[in-house]
Design a protein that fits this description.
Structural class: mainly alpha
Number of strands: 4
Mean pLDDT: 83
Oligomer: single chain
Strand order of the largest sheet: 1-2
Strand content: 5-15%
Distance between the termini: 120 Å
Largest sheet: 2 strands, antiparallel
């Protein structure tokens, strides 16, 4: 009696495939570890420095020059002249919640504007009610 053996196709098995997969996987793991370490150092090690820089960068003072000078008539008489005026803005986010600190802030603002404390409190409440999300509009000091 004859036995028949099943025909098994011969596969071309490359000998270095497992080695290549291991090297690529190791390189990927190494790059991920480098990236993770860098992100960790940015957040944990130097995070306070970047937070301080971001806080300082939030507000800046910009001086704006007037667009023109005096307006004169044909005889050289001054029709319109420049004058300096000051403006005060309060950012509701920076104003403390109702507390002695808020009262102290409003007292100093009242002193700057030469107004009563109640006027400052009422004006602040009105401005916050009229314009809730944005900083308050400038208050002319003259």
């Amino acid at each position: 009696m004859m036995r028949f053996q099943p025909v098994i196709p011969k596969t071309k098995h490359r000998q270095g495939t497992a080695l290549r997969v291991a090297i690529i996987g190791g390189a990927g793991l190494f790059l991920f570890a480098v990236l993770f370490f860098r992100l960790w150092s940015l957040q944990v090690v130097t995070g306070d420095e970047y937070l301080a820089e971001a806080t300082e960068n939030r507000t800046r003072e910009v001086r704006v020059r007037p667009p023109r000078g005096r307006i004169l008539d044909r005889d050289g008489n001054v029709l319109v002249d420049n004058r300096t005026s000051m403006a005060l803005q309060l950012d509701p986010i920076e104003v403390p919640d109702p507390s002695p600190a808020r009262r102290k802030l409003f007292k100093s603002v009242a002193g700057l504007l030469d107004r009563k404390l109640e006027w400052v409190q009422n004006r602040y409440a009105k401005e916050v009610e009229d314009n809730p999300p944005a900083p308050l509009s400038p208050w002319p000091t003259t």
